[in-house]
């Protein structure tokens, strides 16, 4: 029977910090701290999920709604910009005819 190791929360936070803040690889930190292979990867994933405000790694309903709203707004503004570009090109060519060039 395999005995489950216990890691205190401060140890976990420090190990995750080494990966996220200092940019060290998960495997490197596992080796240096004597952590079982794959455990630190799970801690890092859990920390990233919490940082994103989601327990299961999925977007929250409010976040998904906001994303859709912003995508619609971006599409509208992009379309408006393209129309204005075309209008500037048309008016610029009209002005060049009248300027005597």
Structural overview:
The protein is mainly α. It has 2 domains: 1-56; 59-101. The protein has helices spanning 9-20, 26-33, 39-51, 61-98. The model has no long low-confidence stretch (mean pLDDT 85).
Describe the SSE topology.
Elements: H1 9-20, H2 26-33, H3 39-51, H4 61-98
Helix pairs in contact: 1-3
Short description:
This protein has 101 residues and is an all-alpha fold. It contains four helices and no strands.
Can you tell me the overall shape?
A: elongated
How many helices? The count is 4
Strand fraction: under 5%
Mean pLDDT comes to 85
Main features:
101 residues, 70% helix, 2 domains, mainly alpha
